[in-house]
Amino acid sequence: MSRRFFVVGAVAVAALLAAGTATAWYFGLIFTHPSVRGEPVEVPEQAVQTIATGLEIPWAVAFLPDGSALVTERTSGRIVRIRPPSVDQPDAGPAEVTEVARIPDVAAQGEGGLLGIAVSPDYATDQWVYVYYTSPTDNRIVRLRLGGAPEPIFTGIPKARNHNGGRIAFGPDGYLYVGTGDAGRRENAQDLATPAGKILRITADGQPAPGNPFGDSPVWSYGHRNVQGLAWDDEGQLYATEFGQNRYDELNRIEPGRNYGWPEVEGTGREDGFVDPIATGPPRMPRRADWPFWTVGRTWPACGARRCTGSAWTAPARSSCSPTGTAGSARRSSPPTARCGSPPPTATAGATRATATTASCASSPTASPTDQSASGQPHLWTRT
Predict the structure, then answer these.
(1) pLDDT tens per residue across span 23-57
(2) What is the mean pLDDT of residues 205-214?
(3) Dihedral over alpha carbons 326, 328, 333, 337 (to 10 degrees)
């Protein structure tokens, strides 16, 4: 009897250990081995200038040819234009913030709302501004001239409370790239018949771009969970940041027609037919819809990407509980010590800092040079 009791007890303990291990693995509590680690590099506080406050969940930034910023507010549906004071006149007062457009049918629920924004490469002649937003029926892309009515160019992207994607950016080839989410339906990512869970490549009029890998389809790559950042290097190579589920956020090198694995693989799977990310980091909870931090070592956000010479980096997102800045503000940085190719300046957990780089950094959807200091270094903007 005692031996049977011992055997039954041992089996029960083993079962509990196996269940606990599986649960911990699923939720990323163990066996998470991000490929990128490192301590944060603090940006000196005097190098950060808050130029605009009172913004309502700013989500994306794009820059006009004159250097002023267009900022989308996720919940209000507003696009505001921010003209910063000169860096040579730090006491000139706050930036000029002007509402230049409002998208009337934005449905700001969950992670949805007014999301990405991009300025036409030919803005000087066509004046087009493109935005990605959640409507009552779908996620869609419209274009407008500031002060004019929106013109839908691509509709029918599935929507949900979560995983709406939303990043848009013009590539060096002049076509518009679109990062979408799986809209909470994992199977969407592998289904080439839906634009959800994909990176799309379309013309300025919203048609599938010539040379796309699947014929008359806007799909450029697939197997994505929730693409949030897009950036190119000097050779025109596209990179994308992406939210993972419980174990790994990803930085991917994007190739046309390739499958990035979701939902079959999260992080590095080393499985035939799927492309592994070039860098991964474990998500850290809690992660609200308006606080999308990507933690690698300490804190990198996955919501945006920029590329510096020799390195692909992510750029800071907003934090609504920052001890060092004001939530819903636009900030600009000009530290003299940050260099491309050195560890990226980033934020400590819960803090809001501005990314700082030198003139060799390219512009990005979330942080971009806008003006020059006396030393010739550009100043970078971030939304907080």
Answers:
(1) 554 544 444 455 555 555 676 777 777 888 889 99
(2) 98
(3) 70
CA dist., res. 282 & res. 363, Å (int): 26
Nearest to 34 by CA among 274, 244, 317: 244
Any idea what the Cα angle at residue 121 is, between residues 254 and 74, rounded to 5°? Answer: 70
CATH number at residue 225: 2.120.10.30
Q: What are the tens digits of pLDDT across the range 79-104? A: 999 987 766 665 666 788 999 999 99
Q: What is the DSSP string of 28-95?
A: TSSS---S---PPBPPPGGGEEEEE---SSEEEEEE-TTSPEEEEETTT-EEEEEEPPPTT-TTS-SP
357 within some domain: no
* Residue 156: pLDDT band with limits 50, 70, 90: very high
- The answer to whether 333 and 344 are in contact (CB under 8 A) is no
Query: Can you give the residue range of the structural domain that contains 245?
Result: 54-318
**Could you give the number of structural domains in the chain?**
1
In a domain, 83, yes or no: yes
* Burial label, 101 (beta-carbon count in 10 A; 0-12, 13-18, 19+): buried
Amino acid at 232: W
Q: Is residue 148 part of a domain?
A: yes
pLDDT digits (tens, 9 = 90+) for 216-252: 999 999 999 999 999 999 999 999 999 888 788 899 9
Q: CA angle 215-190-165, nearest 5°? A: 90
Q: 287 lies in a domain?
A: yes
